[in-house]
Specification:
- By secondary structure, the protein is mostly helical.
- It folds into 2 domains: 77 residues, Rna Polymerase Sigma Factor, Chain: A, CATH 1.10.1740.10; 75 residues, Arc Repressor Mutant, subunit A (Orthogonal Bundle), CATH 1.10.10.
- Helix content is 71%, strand content 0%.
- It is built from 9 helices and no strands.
């Protein structure tokens, strides 16, 4: 794979990379750092890619590892704005109820839900990306649907 093909494939995967990183990390700056780090690592390790058709899956796996690595390295830091209880109501309106519900799911379930429902990957593709059995993928999707239903019903009750 040459440099221009690499750039084209990265640009094609840009939206997916953001969604995957956002499902693991909460702050946009961290997501940007993880995506940039994953792209750099992928470019450095391009010779380890066995089949070009699996580039996107390979890149997502690198990104997931990068996100978890970044998460491990972070010292518990609380942004200045989050130190105070008075968050503006209009700030919360920037996100849909579904997005808020997904963001509250446990990380393993959240990444599976995002890959399946947001990015459209099949169970087999998620199995290879996350390196887990297909039964585990199906189980996490089922549990995720149930949790989302509960969270959305609860949120609907709050906003009424």
């Amino acid at each position: 794979m040459n440099k221009s093909t690499f750039i084209d494939k990265v640009l094609e995967a840009e939206r997916t990379l953001y969604h995957v990183s956002k499902s693991i990390l909460s702050h946009d700056q961290d997501c940007e750092d993880a995506v940039q780090g994953a792209i750099l690592k992928a470019y450095d390790k391009l010779n380890t890619l066995k089949e070009e058709q699996f580039f996107k899956t390979w890149l997502i796996r690198i990104l997931i590892n990068e996100c978890y690595s970044l998460k491990r390295k972070q010292i518990l830091q609380v942004p200045y704005e989050e130190c105070f209880e008075f968050t503006k109501a209009e700030d919360k309106q920037d996100y849909s109820e579904l997005y808020m519900a997904i963001s509250k799911l446990p990380p393993r379930i959240r990444i599976t839900i995002v890959l399946y429902y947001v990015e459209g990957y099949s169970v087999d593709e998620i199995k290879s990306i996350l390196k887990i059995p297909s039964g585990t993928v199906k189980s996490r999707l089922s549990k995720g649907r149930k949790l989302l239903k509960l969270k959305l019903e609860y949120m609907e009750g709050i906003y009424e």
